[in-house]
Design brief:
This protein has helices spanning 2-48, 58-61, 65-93, 113-121, 125-128, 131-146, 149-169, 172-198, 200-204, 209-257. The chain is mostly helical and 265 residues long. α4 (113-121) packs antiparallel against α6 (131-146).
Length: 265
């Protein structure tokens, strides 16, 4: 478990660094130059035709630093969730295997637990740290020591509940990111409104170009941040649903393939 945690931490750090480099390069090379060209073209059209209504450009919507930070956090959260989904699918693959060879009508006695434990220990070392083998090992050890089927059921339930709490706690970084993205958008709103107020004297003189540009920064940053947050929250809830279903399926596996076959001699 410690090894997996260390690998996941390193993965998160390197993925963040790579995302920062890629997103910033895209902004410097593509997004900001196109946005500046679009704004210059719109300004020229307005000077020619006072009734000209500028069209919204995606480059202008996402050109500011707040939107760049929001996209970096969004892609980072997606990478973290992708890592968790891959690990979850690997663990779910064990649910399709008959680890105990529990045929219909067969009964497991306390003296059979050593052989059953040996079957689980034959799994690869990485797979032995998955939830299902750990739950089965705890159940078999409890049955061997207490010979009480109710205690076995309680033991497997406790293992699954503790794993559920661990998985939920590991989502805290993703929840923080989904909270931080709208906050960054609101910071852009405050910055834009502050810049607009700083140019209020120009608006009084009839030059409203600076004020409108600053207000555009304010509203665009909030719009993009909220849209990203909505998408991320949906994906987070889907991931949480997958984790909860995995825990329930593991409990059902233990009940159907082990607990209901147990018999006290």
């Amino acid at each position: 478990m410690k090894k997996n945690f260390s690998f996941e931490f390193i993965y998160q750090i390197f993925s963040l660094l790579i995302i920062i480099i890629i997103v910033h390069a895209a902004y410097v090379a593509v997004i900001r130059p196109n946005a500046e060209a679009e704004l210059e073209q719109q300004a020229a059209q307005i000077n020619i035709d006072k009734d000209y209504v500028p069209k919204r450009s995606i480059y202008v919507l996402i050109r500011d630093y707040e939107q760049e930070a929001c996209f970096i956090l969004m892609f980072w959260a997606l990478c973290i969730m992708a890592f968790k989904v891959v690990n979850l699918l690997r663990e779910r693959s064990l649910l399709e295997k008959d680890l105990l060879h529990a045929k219909e009508g067969i009964k497991f006695l306390p003296q059979d637990t050593r052989e059953l434990t040996r079957q689980i220990q034959n799994l690869p070392e990485d797979e032995q740290n998955y939830l299902l083998p750990r739950a089965l090992n705890v159940a078999l050890h409890r049955f061997s020591s207490t010979q009480n089927i109710q205690d076995v059921s309680s033991a497997t339930t406790n293992v699954c509940e503790s794993e559920s709490e661990r998985l939920d706690s590991e989502l805290s970084i993703i929840r923080y990111i989904t909270w931080a993205i709208p906050s960054i958008g609101f910071l852009g709103t405050v910055r834009g409104i502050g810049d607009a107020l700083g140019q209020a004297h120009k608006a009084v003189e009839g030059d409203i170009a600076g004020v409108t540009e600053s207000l555009g920064v304010a509203f665009n940053s909030t719009l993009i941040a909220l849209c990203i947050s909505i998408v991320l929250m949906f994906i987070v809830h889907q991931l949480q649903l997958l984790q909860e279903r995995f825990i329930l399926d593991t409990q059902n596996y233990c009940n159907n393939n082990l607990i209901r076959h147990l018999q006290v001699s």
